[in-house]
Specification:
Elements (H helix, E strand, L loop, with lengths): L2 H14 L1 H36 L5 E6 L13 E2 H7 L8 E16 L2 E10 L3 H5 L3 E4 L4 H5 L4 E4 L1 H8 L12 E4 L2 E9 L8 E5 H9 L4 E2 L1 E6 L5 H15 L10 E5 H44 L1 H9 L4 H41 L10 H27 L3 H6 L2
Parallel strand pairs: 4-9, 6-8
Antiparallel strand pairs: 1-11, 1-12, 2-10, 3-4, 3-7, 3-11, 5-8, 6-9, 7-8
């Protein structure tokens, strides 16, 4: 019997037992579909994370150390002169930009409602360096920042605390609120970032003049390296400059802290990859269960067709032909299950990419790639081959006389 004839015979066997074949391959279908869907979800989460935080991959933040420094005494403040020193391209060629900011807590009052929010005194390029967006309204102009205008953008959590969770964000534009004792005009509402949504962002100079009162001091310096590849070099250069300015002799005595977002992003991306692989591996267990089902049904098929095997061997069918026939039947079963699983998994992932972002706000759409689809299908074929080895070998080893006497 040729390979073509064996495949046709296997298909006839599947068609003759439609319900049994469907139930047998159900585990394969579910396993292949689950692997494709979960990997697609993981790809979507990773792509969404990269899109949201890729602009932070070359960002470094410098803050004043808390408490006393190891070398003794209080930590020195970060100053405007430190910012200017970091802008020296000869000493720091891998630093692309340096942006000071003021941070702290501030009392916010709107009418009879009072709350506390995180204060950010920002320059005109704050949105670019912090990867934030404006949901409603506008950002400060460079002229407004330079002239210390009393303007404020609020985070959405701050808006909910002041005016209620059902407030239309557009209605708060133009309203006056009090930050500590100064009156500011609301010109915008920031988009959610999941971390700093209870915030009040004002121009850098206005924060100094009306709220913080620390002339020449900087709470935080945000540094951008020329690329993600030069983060380490930029970090070393800024540390050398600040060590010289703050009279630091050894790293353990530094009175400032440096944090690079690149390391955090790499760890988060690695975690997402591990989680995707783990969930896909769990889903693949159903493939193994499906393989056991295929092996079981093939053993049943061998028992049912014992007399047929005896007749074929009696008229000269070699052992290899019997072995090949049952192996092909097992592979055809799992192959059909794999194809159905691919159709189901890809279809569900594509449908999810359309539906999920509409149902769940900001949910990253699943992304289907060729590799997991191909691997899941090939694994289903391998499982079919492995599941068919024992039943096929058992059929091939039957003696003709024993098979013909079987009732």
């Amino acid at each position: 019997m040729t390979l073509h004839e064996s495949i046709l015979a296997a298909l006839r066997s599947v068609r003759a037992n439609r319900l049994r074949s469907l139930l047998t391959t159900l585990g394969i279908v579910i396993g292949v579909a689950a692997v494709i869907i979960l990997v697609a979800l993981g790809n979507g989460v990773r792509a969404g994370f990269d899109a949201q935080f890729s602009r932070l991959s070359n960002q470094i933040t410098v803050t004043k150390a808390t408490g006393s420094v190891p070398g003794g005494g209080a930590a020195r403040d970060l100053t405007d002169q430190d910012v200017q020193a970091l802008l020296n391209s000869r000493q720091a060629p891998d630093i692309a930009s340096v942006t000071p900011s003021m941070t702290g807590n501030v009392s916010v009052n709107a009418g009879q409602t009072n709350t506390r929010s995180r204060l950010v005194g920002a320059t005109h390029n704050y949105l670019d360096i912090s990867a934030r967006t404006v949901a409603v309204g506008r950002w400060f102009t460079e002229q407004e920042v330079q002239s210390n205008e009393k303007l404020v953008l609020l985070g959405q959590e701050a808006v909910s605390l002041l005016w209620g969770p059902s407030t239309n964000m557009g209605e708060v534009l133009g309203q006056s609120i009090r930050l500590n004792r100064a009156t500011f005009k609301v010109v915008g509402v920031l988009g959610n970032d999941g971390q700093n949504d209870n915030a009040a962002v004002v121009p850098f100079g206005a924060a100094r003049s009306y709220l913080v009162g620390n002339a020449n001091q900087v709470n935080q310096i945000i540094v951008k390296s020329t690329s993600a590849a030069t983060v380490a070099a930029a970090r070393a250069q800024l540390s050398q400059i600040l060590d010289t300015r703050h009279f630091i002799r050894k790293p353990a005595d530094r009175d400032y802290e440096v944090r690079a977002f690149q390391n955090l992003i790499e760890r988060r991306t690695q975690f997402i990859t591990f989680l995707t692989v783990f969930t896909a591996a769990v889903a693949a267990i159903s493939l193994v269960v499906g393989g056991i089902g295929v092996a079981n049904i093939m053993l049943v098929a061998v028992t049912e067709r014992t007399r047929e095997i005896g007749i074929r061997k009696a008229i000269g069918a070699p052992r290899r032909a019997i072995l090949k026939q049952f192996l092909i039947e097992a592979v055809v079963l799992t192959g059909l299950g794999g194809m159905l699983g691919v159709c189901l998994g890809v279809g569900a992932a594509v449908a999810g990419a359309v539906i999920l972002p509409r149902v769940v706000d900001s949910f990253p759409p699943p992304i289907v790639t060729v590799l997991p689809v191909l691997v899941a299908f090939l694994v289903s074929l391998v499982i079919g081959l492995m599941a068919g080895v024992y039943p096929a070998n058992r059929a091939a080893r039957l003696l003709p006389i024993q098979a013909l006497r079987f009732e």
